[in-house]
Amino acid sequence: MEQKIKRGFADLKNYVFGSTAAIITNISLIVGLGSARVGKGPILGSLLTIALADNISDSLGIHLYKETEGCEQRLSLLTTVLNFSARLLVSLSFIGIVLVFSTARSIPVAIVWGLLLLVLLSYLITKVNKTNSIVEITKHVMVAVVVIILSGYVGRLIAARF
User: Fold this and answer.
1) Comparing C-alpha atoms, which of 43, 38, 56, 24 is closest to residue 97?
2) Residue 111 and residue 81: Cα distance in Å, rounded?
3) Cβ atoms within 10 A of the Cβ of 59, count?
4) What are the helix (H) ranges across 36-72?
5) Contact 18/51 with Cβ under 8 angstroms?
6) pLDDT band at 41 (very low <50, low <70, confident <90, very high)
7) What is the pTM of this model?
8) DSSP class of residue 79?
C-alpha cells in the first residue's frame, strides 16, 4: 500500500507542476489583459501562445532537468509529455472561458475556475503527503491571489498610460 501511495505521488508530481504553472499564468494573463481593457482577440492570442510556446519551452526545461538527474530516457519523455498535457488541458479550459464569456465576465469566471483547480490540486497533495489541508491550501491560494492582484494592477497601469 505504501509503495502504491508513493507511485501515485510520483505520477501526481508530473501533473502538478505543469498544472499549477498553467493555472496561475492563465489567470494572470486574463486578469492583466482584461484590466488593461484589451479585447477578446489579443487575450485569446496570448492564451494560445501560452498554451503552445510557453508550455513547450517549460516542458523542454523539465525534460532537460530530468536528464541531468540521470533519469532514463523513457521516464524523462513521460514526465515531459505528462507536464505538457496537463498544462495544455488547463490552458484550453481558460481559452474556453474566454470564448464563452465576455471579457468582463471571463475575469471573475477564470479566477474562480483557477482557484478551484488550485484548491483541488493542493488538496490532493496534502492527502498524499498527509499534511494539513487547510494550511497548505491557504498558502497556495494566497500566492495565487497576490499574483492575480499584481496582474490586475499592472493591467490598470497599462490602460492608464497607453
Assistant:
1) 43
2) 26
3) 21
4) 40-49, 55-68
5) no
6) very high
7) 0.87
8) H
